[in-house]
Amino acid sequence: MMYSDAIDYLFNQLANYHKSGGAAYKPGLDRVNILLDLLGKPHQKFKSIHVAGTNGKGTVTNAIAAVLSTQGYKTGLFTSPHLVDFRERIRINGECIPEDYVCTFVEEYKDKFEHVNASFFEWTWCMACAYFYEKGCDVVVAEVGVGGRLDATNVIVPEISVITSISYDHAAFLGDTLEQIAGEKAGIIKHRVPVAVTALAPNVLEVVRAKAEEQESNLYVLQGDYTDWEHENIALARLALKSQNSFEIGENALEIGLKNYKKINNLRGRWDILQTRPTVIVDTGHNIDAFHKNVMRLMGYERRDMHLILGFAKDKTIDDIISILPARWHYHVCPLKNARMMAPDQLKNAFEIKNISCTIHEDLNTAYTSLLAQLHEEDVMFIGGSNFLVGEFFEKYF
């Protein structure tokens, strides 16, 4: 089987959130447990750290993994979604899973797995578990896909559970109140496994605290007033590493890993500053909480003109996001490859309802290259709103 054939099978034959959105969401642990049993329960044969949350969990997951690998542990890393290549989801010490392993795994288990009617995400997680075990990982840092309680990753019993910020996202699956969403995220808390959580609103923290008490788990809450989003996430990663007792972490490895986690794991798209003068920034944040923080950060860069190339998935509620965007900035939209993306004219109309002008470009290439050629050295270009937009951008230019 060629790699292109394996990827075609995974993306086109399986229920796939990346392609179909909510229609592909399959909560519950029955299917994944059947698959992992077929594989010999690899998820029970390595130590792990489990990270859930609405925003920031990718950063926290990568930061923790970077510290562990810097310390010398063979560290598996499971994240989603990918930006350009499927293999980004499964890494060991920053290196993506090889193409030939993906091909061999799909070819070997396709017939055995099909009767379970598993989703793309369940397949991917099982592949990751098998790979991490076969390669002898000392520890695996796993990011939850959606929610926590019913997520396929919630079959592990980690050394510590970590919960990042909690805000509104995936309401159709997780609930329409922050307390309900917190209950789903807190579902990763296991009996007597410590929990590190970022600073949360009192009503939200109480839900997490109650679950920790129910599970007799020690709860460690991040203290301090963090105005920088990245700093909050890095501080949470530090807290989590200091609150676990399974891995010895020296101060040198801690500082190097936290400061260089993007480079260590080849991580792109998280407040990624591609150049300065003019400044070009890329970020995958795609909900109201992420955009509020990104707008605040962008205001710190504002010198002259601010140009934002934005794209959103069809299932996103964008009126609240547009409401917090300054009308004085310049907004640009364009058609994108992924069928889940909102049409440019629909986006433009949503902006104009808020009395904000918006320019439609022929395609992403035209939007980026034409704007870059016009920018003054003090101007800023921001590209974001969706993993799909950022992924298409990196596929084209990096």
Task: Write a structural description.
The two termini are 28 Å apart. It is built from 17 helices and 14 strands. Helix 1 packs across helix 5 (99-114) and helix 3 (30-38) packs parallel to helix 6. It is α/β, with parallel strands linked by helices and 398 residues long. Helices cover 43% and strands 14% of the residues. Helix 15 (344-353) links the parallel strand 12 (330-333) and strand 13 (358-360). The radius of gyration is 21 Å and the shape is globular. The strands form two sheets. The chain has an eight-stranded mixed β-sheet, sandwiched between helices. It has a six-stranded mixed β-sheet with strand order 9-10-14-11-12-13, sandwiched between helices.
Element layout with pairings:
Layout: H1 3-12, H2 17-20, H3 30-38, E1 47-52, H4 57-71, E2 75-78, E3 90-92, E4 95-96, H5 99-114, H6 120-134, E5 139-143, E6 160-163, H7 171-174, H8 178-185, E7 195-197, H9 202-214, E8 219-221, H10 229-243, H11 251-259, H12 261-264, E9 272-275, E10 279-283, H13 288-299, E11 306-310, H14 319-323, E12 330-333, H15 344-353, E13 358-360, H16 364-374, E14 380-384, H17 387-397
Parallel strand pairs: 1-5, 1-6, 2-5, 6-7, 7-8, 10-14, 11-12, 11-14, 12-13
Antiparallel strand pairs: 2-3, 3-4, 9-10
